[in-house]
């Protein structure tokens, strides 16, 4: 996204009165993670700062990553040995592209002292997209494509998002801009040593298996942006429309086919939602999106479909959604019946079959 004028089309439609949540400090005092309820709608730097509130000083997570070249990387293997610089980015992201020449220079400067890894977000990307970008721009640092799990652990909210992990395995910096602050943070992690050789590592939690067609949906509770809780109960068929409110506008130039698919599915979903027999939910990723912006989007498009902001990316993760738009159909027995991606047609027929099942 353009960090200086975040998603102009969205900014133009934010006409609802804002009801601001607790400030980050108040959330921490209340025992809540700062990013759990924060609802940023500012520029990329402020969003990254809020995302980092609950991360700074905390043990960094482990992650098993695979580069475009098939090399396996165990993130925790660097803790205690050298700092790590993770840069989340996307090929369709304008400031990411602007920062890439400088990022390559950073890699060349620090590659022997910092483990530099380019983490593609994996949203509306393919391996071919990322590989072609690497070749075109002559990038040499390790590049991995996130399946969403690392982004969830590190509160991914913007692109680019910089995460610096010190030699002691603790997160030292989260940012968005390629500026003097980033430069200073890089120099700081290079010169610091792990205190007394101690290495921190975040608890490794079991990752739930991604739901596939035929699997039963259990224990998943959602909440709409107006605070209405929703749970999966037998007897109701559901259509889950996964999207981002900037898909139609921001991707119009860099991913025109995706932008067109987002518009097509939005219009078709709204029409189908007016029919009985299936409960529709529109679920947005938290990347470059706040509840306030989502409410503005809903008002601008006069949508009647309840909106859900997947604040921690858990719902996207549960269904393994990485492409915009995606529709997941769940039958009355709470089993995943069908998954339709951006290139799939026949949504109306799939919904008809869901009703008949």
Automatic annotation (TrEMBL):
One Pfam entry name: AhpC-TSA
Leader sequence segment: 1-24
Top-level taxon of the source organism: Bacteria
Domain called Thioredoxin: residue spans: 54-195, 211-357
Keywords linked to the UniProt accession: Signal
Protein's name according to its UniProt entry: TlpA family protein disulfide reductase
Protein source organism: Massilia agilis
Lineage per the UniProt record: Bacteria, Pseudomonadati, Pseudomonadota, Betaproteobacteria, Burkholderiales
